Amino acid sequence: MHPMAALQTIIPPAAHPVGEVPPIEEEQLTPDQRDALKARIKQLMKEQDAVLVAHYYTAGEMQDLAIETGGCVSDSLEMARFGHASKAKTIIVAGVRFMGETAKILNPEKRVLMPDLHAECSLDLSCPADEFAAFCDRHPDRTVVVYANTSAAVKARADWMVTSSIAVPVVQHLKDQGEKIIWAPDRYLGDYVQKTTGADMVLWQGSCVVHEKFKADGIRELKAQHPEAAILVHPESPAEVVALADVVGSTTQLIKAVQQLPNPSFIVATDIGIFHKMREVAPNKLLLEAPSGGRGATCISCAHCPWMAMNWLSRLEQALTTGHNEIHVPAEVGARAVHSINRMLEFAGQAGINVRGKSGD
Ligand code: SF4
């Protein structure tokens, strides 16, 4: 046991199941259909003064479309910030729902659309706002720190929202102030932060269905076959996987590692959607998928988020045509949620920490 582990209280798993993880359904398009859809989307975006921001885990063609139309491909916080900096009246978020909500919280005056409102996140789903509020009410002496992968309502209940790149400095700061912490929702990232800082934390027991499936044994075997490979791990992965990493970091940090490290190959433990950007920035490097939970046997997600895979071009075209799939956040919820986000940004500014492009997912 880690010497600091005694300070960590694990709350029982939430009574609610995370729910069914949907099967991954990739969009099947002929090249002609794809071209026609992209042309129609571009026309609609122009007519509606819209900008497209896409997450690294979405399909490569969605990422390409974002770049071709002057948008961005990034992580959740940078997606919201890009939309804020843009003069466009509509922000299209190709990602999952909490990313759409974060974009709306930071841009309440803009219309935020998503290709599919069913694109959820197992971390967000694991942490219903009412149950989380009741839990926080039972620990009034603790400061509430939540990860970016949460609903607007959970962010509204929090004192701080943090990204993976700033979680450790914020919790260390709070610990130095003598504060005790509630952390939600990712238990693996919470465990990593607790072990690093030694803070007194209670952890909500959420997890990412993609990252928790990576297997340390499989990674060791792959490393034995590719001893020159660096191991890159997102901190939503289990501790035994994080322990093998040469680099632990957010999506943006892992992409930079592929670009900057001298290794000819990399074992990558995060969603395989990220390979699109990694191949673009480092075309000569060999990228290897970290083994997950027994492909073809027990693997559910197979290193690909089923909700991110819902971002189809045809659904984006429909959202723009019909105006459906708009994200709404009640004004009073947004006003409270923005406080927890701004607190992190102010802390980062004072501490000289750059959280730009280093969000949680
Ligand atoms: S990859 Fe995991 S953390 Fe990211 S959106 Fe999917 S379920 Fe959520």
From TrEMBL:
Its cofactor is [4Fe-4S] cluster. The keyword Isomerase does not apply. One of its GO terms (biological process) is 'de novo' NAD+ biosynthetic process from L-aspartate. Its EC number is 2.5.1.72. SUPFAM superfamilies: NadA-like (SSF142754). InterPro entries: NadA, NadA_sf. GO terms for cellular component: cytosol. One of its GO terms (molecular function) is 4 iron, 4 sulfur cluster binding. It is an enzyme of class 2 (transferase). Pathway: Cofactor biosynthesis; NAD(+) biosynthesis; quinolinate from iminoaspartate: step 1/1. It comes from the Bacteria. Keywords: 4Fe-4S, Cytoplasm, Iron, Iron-sulfur, Metal-binding, Pyridine nucleotide biosynthesis, Transferase. Its main location: cytoplasm. Gene3D superfamilies: NadA-like. Signal peptide: none annotated. Pfam families: NadA. It is found in: Cytoplasm. It catalyses: iminosuccinate + dihydroxyacetone phosphate = quinolinate + phosphate + 2 H2O + H(+). Catalyzes the condensation of iminoaspartate with dihydroxyacetone phosphate to form quinolinate. This is Quinolinate synthase. The lineage of its organism: Bacteria, Pseudomonadati, Pseudomonadota, Betaproteobacteria, Nitrosomonadales.
